[in-house]
């Protein structure tokens, strides 16, 4: 990733980063992250909190010598995120009550 070999694209139903809880990857990437990443990178993840997914995506991109891939999705909800659960409790209209069935 040393040149302008890829172009970033914004799309509402595609993502250019994958959360680590959804990743399926070569174990070599996990080894790079856990063992070869260096103390500095691990300290940044510990200090910043919740950025391990960004670091893992950079490691994969560096190993592949390619930019991020676009992952297609249809309005994926992150059920592990407390904010997503609170949104569901509010209902689709966000009013705090469930919409009536028609």
From TrEMBL:
Pfam families: Glyco_transf_64. This is Glycosyl transferase 64 domain-containing protein. PANTHER family: GLYCOSYLTRANSFERASE FAMILY PROTEIN 64 C3 (PTHR48409). Belongs to the glycosyltransferase 64 family. GO terms for molecular function: glycosyltransferase activity. Residues 4-86 form the Glycosyl transferase domain. InterPro entries: GT64, GT64_dom, Nucleotide-diphossugar_trans.
């Amino acid at each position: 990733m040393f040149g302008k070999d890829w172009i970033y694209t914004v799309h509402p139903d595609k993502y250019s980063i994958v959360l680590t809880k959804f990743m399926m990857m070569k174990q070599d990437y996990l080894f790079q992250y856990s063992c070869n990443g260096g103390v500095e990178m691990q300290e940044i993840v510990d200090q910043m909190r919740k950025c391990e997914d960004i670091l893992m995506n950079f490691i994969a991109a560096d190993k592949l010598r390619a930019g991020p891939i676009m992952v297609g999705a249809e309005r994926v909800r992150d059920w592990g995120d407390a904010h997503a659960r609170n949104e569901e409790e509010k209902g689709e209209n966000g009013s705090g009550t469930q919409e009536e069935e028609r």
